[in-house]
Design goal:
With 257 residues, the chain is of the alpha/beta class. 50% of the residues lie in helices and 18% in strands. Strand 1 (6-12) and strand 2 form a beta hairpin. InterPro entries: ClpP/crotonase-like_dom_sf, Enoyl-CoA_hydra/iso, Enoyl-CoA_hydra_C. It catalyses: a (3S)-3-hydroxyacyl-CoA = a (2E)-enoyl-CoA + H2O; a 4-saturated-(3S)-3-hydroxyacyl-CoA = a (3E)-enoyl-CoA + H2O.
Length: 257
C-alpha cells in the first residue's frame, strides 16, 4: 500500500517495511509526513505487526531533513503546525506497540536523523552520514534532536554534533552509539535479518524491556528498579510469560502472538 511518497508492505510474518520515496532527497515536507502517519496507522490497524523497518527507496539519501522550500513560504503559525506534525510522527513511532528499525544509508540529516533516532534501533550502511545542521539556519533540531541525541551518545558528543553542524561518518556513528549495527551490504537486508531475530521473541516482553531501559534515563535508580519490577510482574498477568515458561519446560518453541 502507499501514499503519494511513502509505501509500505508486509515483508515477512510480523514485519512491515516502510519506504520513503520523495525525490530528490526525501525532504520531510507535509506529503511525506502525511505518508508516515498513514503507514503508522496501517501498522497499528494490521494487529499482527511486531517490527517496522523505516528505509529509503532513494540512492544516497535516507532523508535530508525539513523541506526548506516549504519553510521559506510559511508564516509563524504554519511553521508551528509543521513542527508539530514532525514531532507527532516521531513520537508515534517512538511510542508504537511494535519495535522499529531505521535502515539508514546515504544522508540522514536534520529531521531525517530525528526520524531515525525515534526508532527503537538503527542499522547503518557504510555510506551513511548523519548530522543536525539546523544551527546553520538559525534553528535547533526541534523534532526531538536535542532530546534523543544526548540519550544515545551523551551530552558532550551531542553538543559537538549539534553546535558544529558537522556530518558524522558511519564508523564514528557506530563507535559512539548513534547506530546499533552496521553493514557493508544492503542495509534493508541487514535490518530484515535483525527483524527475523526480533520476531521470535515475545513482543510484550520486548516492549516492557524498552520501557524499562528508557526509565533508566528518567528515574532515580530506586524508582527505576521499582518500575522494572512492575513491568516484569505485568508480563505474568497480562503478557506471555506463562507461555514462554511452559514452552521452555516442554522443550518446544513458544507460541507467542
Amino acid at each position: 500500500m502507499s501514499s503519494e511518497v511513502v509505501s509500505w508492505r508486509t515483508e515477512a510474518p510480523g514485519v512491515m517495511v516502510v519506504l520513503l520515496e520523495r525525490p530528490p532527497a526525501n525532504a520531510l515536507g507535509p506529503p511525506i509526513l502525511d505518508g508516515l502517519h498513514a503507514a503508522v496507522d496501517a501498522a497499528e490497524q494490521a494487529g499482527d505487526v511486531k517490527v517496522v523497518i523505516v528505509a529509503s527507496a532513494l540512492d544516497g539519501f535516507f532523508a535530508a531533513g525539513a523541506d526548506i522550500k516549504h519553510l521559506s513560504s510559511v508564516d509563524a503559525a504554519s511553521f508551528l503546525a509543521y513542527g508539530d506534525q514532525m514531532r507527532a510522527v516521531n513520537d508515534r513511532i517512538a511510542a508504537a506497540p511494535w519495535i522499529s528499525i531505521a535502515a539508514v544509508d546515504g544522508l540522514a540529516l536534520g529531521g531525517g536523523l530525528e526520524l531515525a533516532m525515534a526508532c527503537t534501533l538503527r542499522v547503518g550502511g557504510r555510506g551513511a552520514k548523519y548530522g543536525l545542521p539546523e544551527v546553520r539556519l538559525g534553528l535547533i533540531p526541534g523534532a526531538g534532536g536535542t532530546q534523543r541525541l544526548p540519550l544515545l551518545v551523551g551530552r558532550g558528543r551531542a553538543l559537538d554534533i549539534i553546535l558544529t553542524a558537522r556530518q558524522v561518518g558511519a564508523e564514528e556513528a557506530l563507535r559512539i552509539g548513534l547506530v546499533d549495527r552496521q553493514t557493508d551490504g544492503d542495509v534493508v537486508k541487514e535490518a530484515l535479518a535483525l527483524a527475523a531475530e526480533l520476531v521470535t521473541s515475545s513482543l510484550p516482553a520486548q516492549l516492557a524491556a524498552v520501557r524499562s531501559v528508557d526509565a533508566a534515563f528518567d528515574l532515580p535508580l530506586a524508582d527505576g528498579l521499582a518500575f522494572e519490577a512492575r513491568q516484569e510482574q505485568a508480563l505474568f498477568s497480562d503478557g506471555e510469560a506463562a507461555e514462554g515458561i511452559r514452552a521452555f519446560l516442554d522443550k518446544r518453541p513458544p507460541d507467542f502472538r
